[in-house]
Design brief:
362 residues; 5-(carboxyamino)imidazole ribonucleotide synthase activity; binds adenosine-5'-triphosphate; globular; 9-stranded antiparallel beta sheet; 12 helices; 3 domains; Dna Ligase, domain 1; alpha+beta; ATP binding; binds magnesium ion
C-alpha cells in the first residue's frame, strides 16, 4: 500500500520504518516546512501535498494537530472521521468525551476568559491544575493553584487562552495503556506500564516489570474500548491514567488520551513481538492485530543532551534511538530501550544514566 503520514518527526519516521518493513511505500508530510519527504518510495520529488494525497491509499498521522486544510484535502483517505480528530486537540472536548463515556477522570470545569477562570479559582478549596485547552505537551501550558494563592495574576496569565481547571490528583503512580483498534473493531492492548515524569515530561517507562494487576488492566481496557469505540477509531491510541487509592483499593482516573503512537509505548520496539508502530500499520492495512508478547524493558528518554554516550551504543542490552534533533533543555532527542530482569535493575539503570541522558529546563 501507499501510506502518507502527516508529520515528519521521530514518530512519523518510526511509523514509516515499520510500514516499509511491512512492504508498504511511505511519504511523510512536514507540517512545519510544508514539504513531502520520501522514506522509501522511488518517486519524482518534489511532490505537492495534493499530489501526495492522490498518490496515497491511506493517510495517517504522527500528531493529531493536523492543519485544517490538510484535513479537508485528505478527508477521503483517512480511516477516521476527520471532524472527530479536531475534537481531540481540545482538552474541553476530550474531557467531555470521558464524561459522556463514563470513564472516570478528575473533576473539571472549562473557562474561556480570565474572568471565568477567576470565578472558578475563587470557589475552589483544593489544589487545582490549570491547562490550556489547546497545544500543550510535555507539561507546557499548565499552571498549578493552591488555595490561598493570589488569583488575579494567575488568572491574567493562564486565562489568556481558553482552558480547563481540574482537581490536582494525589496519585499513587502514573500508568498508561497503549493499544490498537482495527477496522473491524478488534482491539489489542499491551499491559499497563508505569511512567515516571519529571517537570511534566516523561522521563522513563517500566514495562513488564511488575506483577500485572488484572483488575486495573481490566479497568484500563474497558476505558480504551469505550473511548475508541465512541470515536470509531482505527490505529494505535495511548491512554494516560492516574492510579488512586481509595478505601484500600486502587482505581484508575484517565488523565488524557493521545490518538496516535505514544512515547510511553516506545519500549515495545525492543520489548514486544510487535511494536506499537507495527500495531498501527497492521490496523491501517487490515492485518490481524494478534496478541503481542512482551519482555521486561526499561525505556529511558533522552532529553536535552547532545548525544547518547557510546557505552550505551556498545551495550548489547541497549537499543539506542537518536532522533537527529538539536538538543535544548527539556526537548526529547532520543530514547534508549534497555533489556532488564527486574524492577530493581531498571531503577539502577535510571539512577546511573538519567543524569547523563536528561537535561531539563531550569
Ligand atoms: P504529554 O506530553 O503527556 O502530552 P501534557 O502536556 O499533555 O503531557 P499532562 O499529561 O496533562 O500534560 O500533564 C503532565 C503531567 O503533569 C502528568 O503526567 C502528571 O504528572 C502531571 N499532572 C497533570 N494533571 C494532573 C492532575 N490533575 N493532578 C496531578 N498531576 C497532574
Ligand atoms: Mg498531552
Ligand atoms: Mg500527558
Amino acid at each position: 500500500m501507499k501510506l502518507l503520514f502527516i508529520g515528519d518527526g521521530q514518530l512519523g519516521q518510526m511509523l514509516g520504518r515499520s510500514a516499509i518493513q511491512h512492504g508498504h511505500e511511505v511519504l511523510l508530510y512536514s507540517t512545519r516546512e510544508h514539504t513531502i519527504k520520501p522514506l522509501s518510495a522511488q518517486l519524482n520529488l518534489p511532490l505537492s501535498l495534493a499530489e501526495a494525497i492522490r498518490w496515497s491509499d491511506c493517510v495517517s498521522w504522527e500528531h493529531e494537530d493536523i492543519p485544517a486544510e490538510v484535513l479537508t484535502a485528505a478527508q477521503a483517505k483517512f480511516l477516521f472521521d476527520t471532524n472527530r480528530i479536531k475534537g481531540l486537540t481540545d482538552r474541553r472536548t476530550e474531557k467531555q468525551l470521558f464524561d459522556e463515556q463514563q470513564v472516570a477522570t478528575s473533576p473539571w470545569s472549562a473557562f474561556s476568559t480570565p474572568a471565568e477562570l477567576t470565578e472558578i479559582l475563587a470557589h475552589s478549596d483544593a489544589a487545582q491544575v490549570i491547562k490550556a485547552a489547546r497545544g500543550g505537551y510535555d507539561g507546557k501550558g499548565q499552571w498549578r493553584f493552591q488555595p490561598g494563592d493570589a488569583i488575579e495574576p494567575l488568572a491574567q496569565t493562564a486565562g489568556q487562552q481558553a482552558g480547563i481547571v481540574e482537581a490536582m490528583i494525589p496519585f499513587k503512580r502514573e500508568v498508561s495503556l497503549v493499544g490498537a483498534r482495527g477496522q473491524d473493531g478488534q482491539i489489542a492492548c499491551y499491559p499497563l506500564v508505569i511512567n515516571i515524569h519529571r517537570q511534566g515530561i516523561l522521563s522513563h517507562t517500566f514495562a513488564g516489570l511488575t506483577e500485572p494487576d488484572t483488575q486495573l488492566q481490566q479497568q484500563a481496557e474497558q476505558a480504551f474500548a469505550k473511548i475508541t469505540t465512541a470515536l470509531d477509531y482505527v490505529g494505535v491510541l495511548g491512554v494516560e491514567f492516574f492510579v488512586v487509592e481509595e478505601a484500600g483499593s486502587q482505581r484508575l482516573l484517565v488523565n488524557e488520551i493521545a490518538p496516535r503512537v505514544h512515547n510511553s509505548g516506545h519500549w515495545s520496539m525492543q520489548g514486544s513481538s510487535h511494536s506499537q508502530f507495527d500495531l498501527h500499520i497492521r490496523a491501517l492495512t487490515q492485518i490481524p492485530l494478534g496478541q503481542p508478547t512482551i519482555r521486561p524493558t526499561l525505556m529511558l528518554n533522552v532529553i536535552g543532551v547532545a548525544e547518547i554516550p557510546s557505552a550505551l551504543w556498545q551495550d548489547a542490552r541497549c537499543q539506542c534511538h537518536w532522533y537527529n534533533k538539536a538538543a535544548r533543555p527539556g526537548r526529547k532527542v532520543g530514547h534508549v530501550n534497555i533489556q532488564v530482569d527486574s524492577l530493581e535493575e531498571a531503577e539502577q539503570w535510571v539512577t546511573e544514566w538519567s543524569p547523563r541522558l536528561q537535561t531539563l529546563a531550569d
